[in-house]
Amino acid sequence: MRISGITTRIVRQSSDLWYAPNPIPPGYTPYFDFPLTTIHTTEGVEGYTMDYGPLGQGRPSAHAVHDIYYHDLVGKNPLHHEAIWQEFRKKQRHLYNFREAIWGNLDVALWDIKGKVAGMSIATLLGKVRDKIPTYSSCPPQTVLTIDDVAEQILKKINQGFRGVKLQLSGGSKIDIPKLKKAREVAGDDFPLMLDSSAVLSFEDALKIGYALDELKYEWFEEPFPDAHILQLKKLSQAVRTPVLAAETVGVFELPHYMTDGAIDIIRGDVHHKSGITGVMKAIAMCELMGYEFEIHTAAAPLLDIANLHVGCATRLTRFMESHHPMFRFGLKNNPLEIDAEGYQHCPTGPGLGVEIDWDWMDDHTVKMIKDQQE
Asked: What range does the domain containing 56 cover?
């Protein structure tokens, strides 16, 4: 079996879905473009993957797959994903203006092929340890602008059956601490709550928020500063009781420094940010050997989040799956990313990714096709 070609369709969704009922802000892209890539093989087995595109990067990343990686893939055995991954790693050294997330997405399609050839789910190939995983819901920042919004969203998520709720707040301590208190008041003492500050805080402000989270018994304090600010992360981790969760944007080969330096308490990652399924399993192995938890971050693209679900069901280091805005759960039949009545996402059991793409829906939302095929 050999890789014979790559096809990418750009699937478009309106930004109205993200901002509704509010208008799209001036200067923001009017649509989200999601590349959907198919890796074709000589045996007719196809592997699927996607990319994320909320800021206009969907189309350029689609072209990057074809312009940069096509010749590294065509003619290769797709089952040799480790060899291909290592070649991508070497090439990344000189791809100064591109991150490894692009080839990490391609790695997902290789695992999809591998599972289909083996007749097994990806989770089974990885050594599945569970069939389902508790799921929390993230509140996009535009949905929690006021204290009343916070109360409404917390109750909504609880009533929908989620096992936890994460607030995305980045207004600073004076604005955010009252919202954090309201969330705890509404949710009750024992319901899991988390905070994501999107890397915008000063150290002083983060310290005030961290002390408040200690009193309010939040599960974690996510990304208070940019991941590159290792010293500030370490100081905060040492100062507050609430676990600091970070390293979401950190590549696999930089990740060990966060562990050996004791910079944070919980590691963050997903198949997109950590170089595919192959890369994220290496990150999880590091965490297990060093005694860290690994919380899986949403990739906000449905096939990548299905891949995340397979990974989450192949490790005990992840407590939750993350469920983001409903607009990111498109184009798949039978709603495989929805939670059950007890707040769990269930791992697909079919071969590879184990989901069925709704090609009619994809056709209706495709605005461009890119194709490279071996002669």
From this structure: 3-119+356-373
Strand-pair category, 3-14 with 366-373: antiparallel
Note the pLDDT tens digit of each residue in 118-154. Answer: 999 999 999 999 999 999 999 999 999 999 999 999 9
Which of 177, 253, 251, 184 is CA-nearest to residue 216? 184
- 284-322 pLDDT, tens digit per residue, is 999 999 999 999 999 999 999 999 999 999 999 999 999
Q: Residue range 104-129: average pLDDT?
A: 98
Supply the DSSP symbol for 33: E
**Percent helix, strand and coil across the chain, each rounded to 5?**
40, 20, 40
Distance, in Å, from the CA atom of 342 to the CA atom of 43, rounded to the nearest integer, reads: 41
> For residues 318 and 294, is the Cβ–Cβ distance under 8 A?
yes
Report the distance separating Cα 297 and Cα 206, nearest Å: 21
User: CB of 294 within 8 A of CB of 244?
Assistant: no
* Domain match, 38 and 147 both: no
Angle at 200 between CA 196 and CA 204, to 5 degrees: 100
In a domain? residue 15: yes
Q: State the pLDDT at residue 375.
A: 64
State mean pLDDT over 9-23: 93
SS3 133: strand
Domain check: are 46 and 128 in the same one? no
Q: Would 81 be classed as within a structural domain?
A: yes
**Residue 368: exposure state from Cβ atoms within 10 A (0-12, 13-18, ≥19):** middle
Instruction: Tell me how far apart the alpha carbons of residues 169 and 189 are, in angstroms, rounded to a whole number.
Output: 20
CATH number at residue 188: 3.20.20.120
Output the CA angle 364-69-59, nearest 5 degrees: 35
Q: H or E element: which one contains 34? A: strand 31-41
How far apart are alpha carbons 266 and 258 in whole angstroms?
A: 10
pLDDT over 90 at 373, yes or no: no
